């Protein structure tokens, strides 16, 4: 799990395409290795959904937030991952994505890793057990600056208690 966290944190750095592909593959391998700890999504439980370039996407599983320090949803080859800190889970809190709060989008296409430095997450609801929020971002890559991925209408729900 520690190596997974380290790889995710390095994934947002500016690196060459071949290095980014290797890192993306290492992260996918780490996620698969640690998947027994993943949690199935449901309408009333853990959830993440968004539109990726206008197409509906919904996570099938999510990783627990405390050990990873990330809000991470996965379906097939697509993973959306952004930083998590329990102290930021306050209703109304707006977090702008940037260098210290970058989003990672992993896809199965030619460009496997996208960094999101433009966008935001808003915590919309917090009760004793759950936190919900919305998000959007633009994913870019240093090797193809003319390409981008728009992630809109994002929503997540995470448990604030240990699974």
Walkthrough of the structure:
The chain has 163 residues and is of the alpha+beta class. It is 19% helix and 44% strand. Strand 9 and strand 10 form a beta hairpin. The chain starts with a helix and ends with a strand.
Number of helices: 3
The percent range for strand residues is: 35-45%
Instruction: Give the uncertain stretches in residue-range form.
Output: 1-15
Tell me the structural class: alpha+beta
Please, what is the average pLDDT?
Answer: 84
Anisotropy-based shape: globular
Instruction: Bin the helical content.
Output: 10-25%
Count of β-strands: 11
Query: How do the SSEs run, as a string of H and E?
Result: HHEEEEHEEEEEEE
Walk me through the topology.
Layout: H1 2-10, H2 17-34, E1 39-40, E2 47-52, E3 55-58, E4 61-63, H3 65-68, E5 70-75, E6 78-83, E7 94-96, E8 103-106, E9 113-126, E10 130-140, E11 148-159
Antiparallel strand pairs: 1-4, 2-3, 2-11, 4-5, 5-6, 6-8, 7-9, 8-9, 9-10, 10-11
Give a brief rundown of this model.
Helix content is 19%, strand content 44%. With 163 residues, it is of the alpha+beta class.
Structural features:
163 residues; alpha+beta; 44% strand; disordered N terminus
């Amino acid at each position: 799990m520690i190596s997974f966290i380290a790889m995710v944190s390095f994934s947002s750095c500016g690196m060459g395409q071949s290095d980014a592909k290797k890192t993306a593959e290492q992260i996918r391998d780490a996620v698969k290795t640690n998947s027994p700890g993943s949690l199935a999504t449901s309408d009333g439980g853990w959830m993440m959904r968004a539109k990726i370039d206008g197409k509906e996407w919904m996570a099938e599983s999510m990783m627990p937030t405390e050990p990873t320090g990330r809000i991470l949803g996965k379906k097939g080859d697509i993973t959306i991952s952004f930083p998590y800190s329990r102290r930021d889970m306050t209703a109304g809190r707006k977090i702008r994505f940037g260098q210290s709060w970058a989003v990672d989008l992993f896809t199965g296409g030619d460009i496997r890793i996208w960094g999101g430095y433009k966008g935001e997450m808003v915590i919309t609801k917090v009760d004793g057990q759950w936190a919900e929020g919305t998000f959007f971002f633009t994913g870019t890559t240093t090797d193809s600056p003319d390409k981008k991925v728009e992630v809109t209408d994002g929503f997540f729900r995470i448990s604030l208690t240990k699974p």
